[in-house]
Amino acid sequence: MALALRLPRTVRPGRSSSRPTPQPRLQPKQLRHEFSIGPSTFRFYHGDCLAVLPALDRGSIDVIVTSPPYNLGIKYRSYEDDLPRSEYLSWTDQWLRAASKVCGPQASLFLNVGAKPTDPWIPLEVAQVARRYFKLQNTIHWVKSIAIDRDATGEALGLDRDVAVGHYKPINSERFVNDCHEFIFHFTPDGRTKLDRRAVGVPYQDKSNAARWATGGDGKRCRGNTWFIPYETIQSRDRDRPHPASFPPKVPEQCLRLHGIERAHTVLDPFLGLGNTAIAAGRLGVNFIGIEMDAHYLSEAVARVKSALGDD
Description:
Low-confidence stretches: 1-18, 240-244
Radius of gyration: 20 Å
Number of helices: 9
CATH class of the domain at 29-137 and 186-204 and 237-292 and 300-308: Alpha Beta
Largest sheet: 9 strands, mixed
Mean pLDDT: 84
Strand content: 15-25%
CATH topology of the domain at 29-137 and 186-204 and 237-292 and 300-308: Rossmann fold
Distance between the termini: 41 Å
Helix content: 10-25%
Number of strands: 13
Strand order of the largest sheet: 1-2-13-12-3-4-8-5-11
CATH architecture of the domain at 29-137 and 186-204 and 237-292 and 300-308: 3-Layer(aba) Sandwich
Oligomer: single chain
CATH superfamily of the domain at 29-137 and 186-204 and 237-292 and 300-308: Vaccinia Virus protein VP39
Shape: globular
């Protein structure tokens, strides 16, 4: 059963794309915004991704970075986030099947899914649905808050105390610990998509290690599958982050860099939210297509993209 659901949810000069952004075969009323900033072309569609995705050309998308509803009872404007589990997973199957058809043979799908302590299985159940259409190539842990003991860092960092950085929602419970991370599942069509691992690499702490590895010529090593990306501190939720479930722009930016900017001609987010994936695409000089069912979120996303990329 097709569901008309709210589909939520994240300029530096870049290279120009040799391939134009694919144009879905849709009625004009569904294309609400189209513009270019620098080398990037942006197209924003107001509608259900179950209707928009089938209108895209097969194999036309290089990277999808997205975060669908988690079915955890989050309060969105236009979507009730508490479907019966079987209905939610059936809807998940529909949009993932449609997404698989628009992905190119070397595409990446970066799928961000969170959980809550009383319902920890949602991300893994969503991943099992995605397994029908994709291969799971990497599992990335997005860490939003972390505590580091001074003694664990060694003398090189010179810390004089333990540190705790990032933001989390405190849990008042005798059973559960605070939830400080979410999954980012990296799916590909056949599990063989090449990545630009050092594009999101980190410098070797011991420079002598770089000379030991053929891959360490630029002084960086693979970051691995644990990414610490905190939210920015905000003063007003309604003004600064008027969406209940968005990721920071750095999350999609690192996903796109890992995939490889030279191969990311067109990026898609079928759950646009506040447009942070669009902002990341614009900063990296690639084309973007976004789909959003809620008109308010769509307008907010377009305004934020233009503001962030200097096209006010």
